[in-house]
Amino acid sequence: MDEKERKQVISPLSTESLQQNGKTVYYIRSVTSTVFGVSAGILGLESYYGFLFYFGGTVFVSFLLFGLLARGRPGEYFTSANDVWTSNALTGLSSFVLTWTLFYGLVDA
Predict the structure, then answer these.
(1) How many angstroms separate the CA atoms of 52 and 67, rounded?
(2) How far apart are the first and last CA of the chain?
(3) Residue 35: what pLDDT?
(4) What is the pTM (predicted TM-score) of this model?
(5) Could you tell me the CA-to-CA distances from 51 to 33, 56, 65 in Å, in that order?
(6) pLDDT (tens digit per residue) in 24-53
(7) What is the Cα–Cα distance from 58 to 80, expressed in whole angstroms?
(8) Residues of the chain below pLDDT 50
(9) Which among 13, 46, 68, 79 is placed 20 to 30 Å from 5, CA to CA?
C-alpha cells in the first residue's frame, strides 16, 4: 500500500464534506467578486485597471482560502489541491462587471 492509499484509509474524504467545501468556496468567490465590483466602481477604475483589480483580488482571496479555510492543507478538504486556486475563479466575473458598471455609473453621475 502506497502513501496515498494509506491516507485514504486513515482519513477518507466524504462526498458530503467535499460538496459543502465546494459550495463554501463558490459562495466566498461570489460575494467577494461583488464586493470587488462595488469597490472598483467607487474607485472609478476604468478598462484594464478594473480587470486587473478583479484578478488581483481573486488571487488575494485564493491565498486567504488556502491559508485560512484550508489551513495550508487543501488536499485534506478538497479532491485536488488546485481546487482552492482555480475552482470558481471566473464565475464571479459577470457579477463583478455588473456591480462595477453600476457603481461607476452612480458615482460618476
Answers:
(1) 22
(2) 66
(3) 96
(4) 0.78
(5) 11, 8, 21
(6) 888 988 999 999 999 999 999 999 999 999
(7) 19
(8) none
(9) 68
